[in-house]
Amino acid sequence: MTRPDLNLLVTLDVLLAEGSVARAARRLRLSPSAMSRALARLRAATGDPLLVRAGRSLVPTPRAAELRDRVGHLVQESEMALRPAGKLDVKALVRTFTLRTSEGFVENFGPALFARVSAEAPGVELRFVPKPNKDSAPLREGSVDLETGVLESTTSPELRTQALFRDRYIGVVRKGHALSKGKITPTRYAAGRHIGVSREPAQDPVDLALVNLGLKRKIVVSLVAGFATAVALARTSDLIATVPERHTGNLRTGMHSFAVPVPTPAFTVSMLWHPRLDADPGHRWLRDHVRAVCAGLR
User: Which of 140, 236, 266, 272 is the most buried (most CB within 10 A)?
Assistant: First the structure.
């Protein structure tokens, strides 16, 4: 079945509004003969004469009268759909944004992000979901609007990304812990009782740096993931947590933090989203707020 030429909707809308082939032609900047040919195509498409001569003018058929409002509405909706997006009215925005982040990101940046968003758009809901892996399917399928994390070689190249902040690993212990006093050497650090937080322990940057010095941490508690949990355990025990500095800023309040005494590479935390949301005004507005919160802006 041949698909109809949707451009004819605009022609039909003007013809029904003007009731004249000549006037419709002038309005659409066509020749009268071109407009007559378009009317013939419309008659063939609809199976109705649409406009018939009555004296010196054309009058609509019942079918044309029935179509007038519908066609006008369709043309107006099409024009609106194809216009550039207008200015976003955030006060009137009603929308739920789903963010896939780590537990620590929510606890450290979530309160400030919520405060900024709710102050401007009370109708917006932020929904945080856990991030058990690096799979980009939720972004691609649309079940997640925005994600934060460290880019890896396996990150899908189709995704849009933007850096949020640089981070590094530090150590954290409870107030009064032995490591809260005196110089912390690699040997002294490694000899403590540690919480291990890594999806791939063999690739942990701190352990790799210690191996180069002939040292090894004594891991007494292992967590598959969850720096917030590691900080909570260290707060009420003699265990040592090694965690990202920026990612855990609020979580470490009241504790003693120190630089890890071995060289470890800094890393960049980024936000990721699917390209279909790149130009979406609401999504751009959310990204601006995430960026501002991570930059520490008020």
Answer: 272
Q: Do 198 and 75 contact (CB within 8 A), yes or no?
A: no
What is the predicted pLDDT for the residue at 141?
84
Pick from 98, 103, 111: nearest CA to 277: 98
Q: What is the pLDDT of residues 86-125, one digit of tens each?
A: 688 899 999 999 999 988 888 889 999 999 999 999 999 9
- pLDDT of 200 > 80? The answer is no
Alpha-carbon span 144 to 131, nearest angstrom: 11
Instruction: Identify any residues that bridge with 162 across adjacent strands, giving them in sequence order.
Output: 271
Q: Is 198 helix (H, G, I), strand (E, B) or coil?
A: coil
Q: Is 88 helix (H, G, I), strand (E, B) or coil?
A: coil
Tokens of 220: 């007494």
Sign of the dihedral defined by the CA atoms of residues 173, 179, 182, 186, in that order: negative
Residues 6+ away with beta carbon under 8 Å from 138: 100, 144, 147
Q: At what angle do helices 227-235 and 103-120 cross, to 10 degrees?
A: 110
Contact status, residue 4 vs residue 59, Cβ threshold 8 Å:
no
Of 268, 235, 265, 267, residue with least CA distance to 250: 235
Structural domains in the chain, sorted by start: 7-82 (1.10.10.10), 90-164+281-294 (3.40.190.10), 169-265 (3.40.190.10)
Proportion of the chain above pLDDT 90, given as a percent: 52
